[in-house]
Amino acid sequence: MNSLVEAGKAAAEFNMLLQESVRVHGHLCAGQVLGVRMSMLGLREIGIIDPKGANRKSLIVYVEMDRCATDAVQSVTGCSLGHRTMKFMDYGKMAATFLNLKTGRAVRVFARDDSRQKAKDLFPGVENKYAAQIEAYKVMSDDELFNVMEVTVRVSPQDMPGRPMGRVQCDSCGEHVQDMREVCKDGKVLCVPCASGCYYIP
Ligand SMILES: [Zn+2]
Ligand SMILES: [Zn+2]
After folding, report:
1. Which ligand is in closest contact with the Cα of 67?
2. How far is the CA of 174 from the centre of ligand 2 (A)?
C-alpha cells in the first residue's frame, strides 16, 4: 500500500513538473519529458528535495546541450544562466550534471542511446510515432532511460553565484571584463574576443 501511495505521489509530481515545463517551453515534446525525468532523477540522487525553495542555494546544474530538454532542466531545478546556477557546456550531448554544493555530491545523468529504440518498440501499433515516443518516455524506468555516473565537480570561485570577482578593462577594445575572464597575452590584458576571435564582425 505504502509503495502504491509513493508511486502515486511521484506520478503526480512528475505531471505537475511536466505541465510547468511545457508552459515555460511553449510545447510538449520528447525533450520536456526527458528533461523533467532527468532532473527529478538527478535531484533525488544528490538529495535535493526543494530546489526552488530551501535548497535553492545548494544547487548547480551543468547542461551539455542547448536543446528542448535544457528548458525542462531549468524549469524543474530553478537553475538559470542569470543566477549562475546553470552552466552551459557546449558538448551536444543529452546529459546534465547535478551538484549539491553543501555535500559536494554530484551525479551526471545521460540519456541512454538505446532508449530511443526501446521507446519505439513500446507502442508499435500507434500511428503517430512521435506521440508514441513521448508516451514511452513517460512510462519507461529511470534505468531504461538514463545512465547515472557519480562525478566530482570543482567549481572555481569565479564561477560561483554571488558578487562578481574582479573587473578589468581590455587593453585592446576598452570594454570591461568581469569574473576573471580576461586573458594575458604578450604582456597585455585582453578580453576573450580580442585575444582569440569572436562570433561577430564589428
Ligand atoms: Zn521542445
Ligand atoms: Zn577586448
Report:
1. 1
2. 6
CA of 184 to the centre of ligand 2 (A): 11
Q: CA dist 197 to 79, 116, 185, 191, 202, Å? A: 30, 38, 13, 10, 11
List pLDDT tens digits, range 124-170.
888 898 999 999 999 999 999 999 999 999 999 999 999 999 999 99
Residue 21 Cα to ligand 1 midpoint, Å, equals 10
Cell of 171: 587593453
What pLDDT digit, counting tens, does each position of 56-78 carry? Answer: 999 999 999 999 999 999 999 99
Q: pTM for this one? A: 0.94
Report how far apart, in Å, the C-alpha atoms of 72 and of each of 18, 38, 128 are.
8, 9, 23
